[in-house]
Design a protein that fits this description.
The chain is α/β, with parallel strands linked by helices and 372 residues long. The protein contains 13 helices and twelve strands.
Length: 372
């Protein structure tokens, strides 16, 4: 008998809401998924909230409610399109939109918005949100939270493998075929964030389709070496980061002293930077010869995938679709899984990934108010 959960997330690229319908009666199965574009005005509001600005508390509160309303309505449309009645869903797991992620603060915090109350009222489905704060309360990073889902979805596996998710930020999950070895994960650094920021500033495009612009340029090895000096890349995991760090300002700071580099060459260098930092992390912390399975929006960037394969030439680098997993739905599926963990009171964090002092049930419940 099926046991359905909905998972949804607006990722660090802030380009749309990923929704997944997951059957978690036994081994999780992603039954349906979709990405729904955010309204342009709401998308702009969310991006503006990534940096300090005037009247910030009011804009934060308003966007919190507006995003919650959008998520609730999007879920209802998604269910209707897939012929599923809301009464069939046990719970919604909503990550929302991260607008601040500062685990390095004292004390560390991470803030996701997207009102769970509004989602529950609009859908009539119990909603679980605020997944990161409990891990942070145990001195964890609050991220990444997807390794437990990756392991449950893809285990058992005959060979060691690395799941590389390239959203705005890139993160990895290290999975061993040997059950005796602990699995773990961490953020490797920028994913699409710098590429999107530079192409938007230079060409007023949301993203570099297929990596065509970066492929047309030449890497500045001097700039690349300067970027690689960032101390984030010398930190041992567990570690996490966000667009608070890897953004347009980061590029502009890095370009000081490199004003003669052509814009397309900057894009090429940023693509190489993303590939090198991810590859270096995998080579240092991943098992030798492990297959690398790439998911997230970055898998659609042919130039980035080419560079990854070049730097990981002793490993097989494949898109997640090659193992019959939709690369756009994995993160949303993970929050459906975490909602199930909350409902069943099962710990959802992986201390070896987040650095938390222990395992905990993650999330807060917003009951639907609908009586059975």
């Amino acid at each position: 008998m099926s046991r359905f959960f909905i998972g949804c997330i607006s990722g660090t690229s802030i380009d749309g809401l990923d929704i997944a319908l997951v059957d978690i009666e036994h081994k999780p199965t992603i039954s349906a998924s979709n990405t729904i574009s955010l309204p342009e005005r709401l998308r702009d509001q969310l991006r503006e909230l990534l940096q300090p600005g005037p009247n910030e508390a009011f804009r934060l509160g308003l966007s919190h409610v507006q995003l919650g309303e959008f998520i609730g309505k999007a879920i209802l449309h998604f269910l209707k399109d897939n012929g599923v009645d809301p009464s069939e869903i046990v719970a919604v797991g909503s990550h929302g939109q991260t607008v601040r992620h500062h685990p390095e603060a004292d004390p560390g915090f991470s803030l996701q918005i997207g009102s769970g109350s509004h989602i529950a009222e609009i859908t009539g489905i119990d909603t679980v949100a605020d997944f990161r704060s409990r891990d942070l309360a145990l001195d964890g990073e609050g991220a990444p939270l997807v390794p437990s889902f990756h392991r449950t979805l893809l285990h058992p596996c005959e060979d060691d493998q690395v799941i590389l998710n390239i959203g705005g930020i890139a993160n990895v999950t290290i999975l061993y075929s040997n059950d005796q070895r602990p699995f773990f994960g961490f953020d490797t650094g920028p994913g699409n964030s710098l590429l999107d920021a530079w192409v938007n500033d230079s060409k007023q495009l949301r993203y570099d389709a297929n990596g065509d612009w970066s492929a047309s340029g030449r890497v500045s090895h001097e700039l690349l070496e300067a970027l690689l000096e960032d101390t984030f890349f010398t930190l041992d995991p567990p570690k996490s980061t966000g667009k608070e760090k890897f953004n347009l300002n980061y590029i502009e700071q890095g370009l000081r002293g490199f004003s003669t580099i052509k814009a397309r060459d900057v894009q090429s260098t940023l693509c190489e930077f993303t590939a090198v930092t991810a590859a270096n992390a995998i080579k240092r912390w991943g098992p030798g010869a492990a297959r690398v399975v790439v998911c997230g929006g970055g898998r659609l960037n042919a130039d980035l995938m080419r560079r990854l394969a070049l730097h990981l030439n002793d490993r097989s680098v494949i898109r997640s679709e090659e193992i019959n997993v939709d690369g756009d739905s994995l993160e949303a599926g993970a929050f459906a899984w975490l909602a199930r963990c909350f409902i069943d009171q099962v710990p959802g964090n992986v201390p070896s990934a987040t650095g938390a002092k222990g395992e905990r049930v993650l999330g807060c419940l917003y009951p639907s108010g609908v009586k059975a």
